[in-house]
Amino acid sequence: MADERHAPAAGDAPARRRGQGELEAQVLAVLQQAPGPATAGWVQERLEGDLAYTTVMTILSRLHAKDAVSRSRSGRSYLWQASSDAAGLAALRMRRMLDGEADRDAVLASFVTALLPHDEELLRALLDAASADPAAADRES
């Protein structure tokens, strides 16, 4: 027999599950608003919904593995700090996806041909600016 305590009330919409990327972006946004390094509990309190502490820790650990956040020991716990923003995290995902493909040329060609005209113009301008600034290329390496 189903447990009626967990069934949504009549007319209530079921809770929408957030994807991992969405949670990561939300955690990064919270950390960017922090006045300094923050505990996982501090992050948990500021996230929408009722995420478990272990879920927040999992997301923070994944972000740390991606170099999107840094951490330092504070007693028995960690203090977390954003080292990237949502755009940086998306770029990291794109680079990791590209690194996982055998035919980089084909992946990049497919990506570029699918760009909207405005995005293509922006990409061209960014590439031109990066090639004109050798220091920018060094920062990316």
UniProtKB/TrEMBL annotation:
Work out whether the entry's keyword set contains Transcription regulation.
Answer: yes
Coiled-coil segments: none
Pfam hit, one: Penicillinase_R
Q: Which GO terms describe its molecular function?
A: DNA binding
Q: What keywords are assigned to this protein?
A: DNA-binding, Transcription, Transcription regulation
Q: Which GO terms describe its biological process?
A: negative regulation of DNA-templated transcription
The yes or no answer to whether the keyword Transcription regulation is present is yes
Q: Which domain of life is it from?
A: Bacteria
The entry assigns this protein to a family as follows: Belongs to the BlaI transcriptional regulatory family.
What is the official name of this protein in its record?
A: CopY family transcriptional regulator
